[in-house]
Amino acid sequence: MDLAKEKACKNCHFISMGNICPICKSPNLSEDWSGLIVVVNLEKSEIAKKIGAKSPGKYAIRVR
Question: What is the rounded radius of gyration, in angstroms, for the C-alpha atoms of the chain?
């Protein structure tokens, strides 16, 4: 059974299942990431502002 792994974008750290980042359109993704930030409300989240989040969703803290 081939299970798809979540990948994190090396540019914006957004986590997705595809081969191209849906946020910055970069093909530079990695399965080797750690840490997780979930952004629900961009306007009220201080963390989202600090990490430069452009969209609600999951972000990796470190991407290798």
Answer: 12
d(CA 64, CA 22): 19
Backbone angles phi, psi at 49, to 5 degrees: -65, -40
**Burial of residue 9 (number of CB atoms within 10 Å: 0-12, 13-18, 19+):** buried
Whole-number mean pLDDT of the chain? 94
Using an 8 Å Cβ cutoff, are 14 and 55 in contact? yes
Contact 19, 29 (CB under 8 A): yes
48: helix, strand or coil: helix
Model pLDDT, residue 24: 97
